[in-house]
Amino acid sequence: MMRNFKSLYLLGFCVVFFMVSGCAHTPLNLSYQPAQRPYKKHKIKIAVVKPAYTGSKIQQNMQQMFMLSAYGDPGEAPVNISLYNKYINIYSLKLANAMIADLDKIVASKGMIPYKTFDIYDEVTYRDKKNVDLILAPEFDFGPIIKNHRTWIPMIWPLNHIYWDHGSIIMAGKIRLVFYEPMSKEKIVLKDVDISSLGLDTTIPYSSKSDAEDKIINFLNKMYPQLMGRLAKVIDPDEIAESMSDIEHLKQEKE
Fold first, then answer.
1. To which H or E segment does residue 65 belong?
2. SS3 letters for 17-30?
3. pTM for the full model?
């Protein structure tokens, strides 16, 4: 009887250990190549600012959960806390770095002239503002909405208890492209793309903390080229060229 109990105990431990440990994570691979099509050349210089992550609600929710949670050690934090933290501090930065490089390529592929890239708008000097026609400063707030369930399993000393996290992630939000007149910072062209419009399944079930990380990375890897392709479609060089008279007028007012 005791031998059977020990065997069941060991089996239960192994099953739960497998569920919570997982394997090596899928790498984040944000790759995109603009289509090379013959566009009419426009002598429009555009500076690109690194997209700013504006998912403040996600960050506020994470901080509130940290305050209410009894799990002070990040290793004990449920998925909805640990994954929010990773998304805000790692994934959103990698997305921004990839997007600034690819938006610069898209500007060139559309027959316009990429000028320079900047980490933030305030880095654009007065001289740079005089030398460019527009500044593209995107913002994005898309990210995970996580509904996590933590299942606790009572164990015999010395483990006391173990747990695993499982639930679902909904990816939601949009990116906004804002083309500013450099001197006045007036909005000249504004385009929104919601990730729900890309035709992807934005509801992601997961069975462990490791599984949740892998699945959100897989989603971002799949979503990214489709998102950039959609942004390339909404950036219309002819529409921007039609705004050049407004841009010149605003520049003259500021000089």
1. helix 56-68
2. HHHHHCCCCCCCCC
3. 0.81
H-assigned helices in 110-200: 126-131
Phi/psi at 84 (5° precision):
-60, -45
| Distance (Å, whole) CA 248 – CA 255 | 11
Q: Find the length of the chain.
A: 255
Report the distance separating Cα 176 and Cα 178, nearest Å: 6
Q: pLDDT tens digits for 160-192?
A: 667 788 999 999 999 999 999 999 899 999 999
130 touches 248 (CB < 8 A) = no
Place of tokens 């747990």: 163
Q: What are the chain's domains?
A: 42-244 (3.30.160.180)
Task: Say how far apart CA 249 and CA 132 lie, in whole Å.
Answer: 14
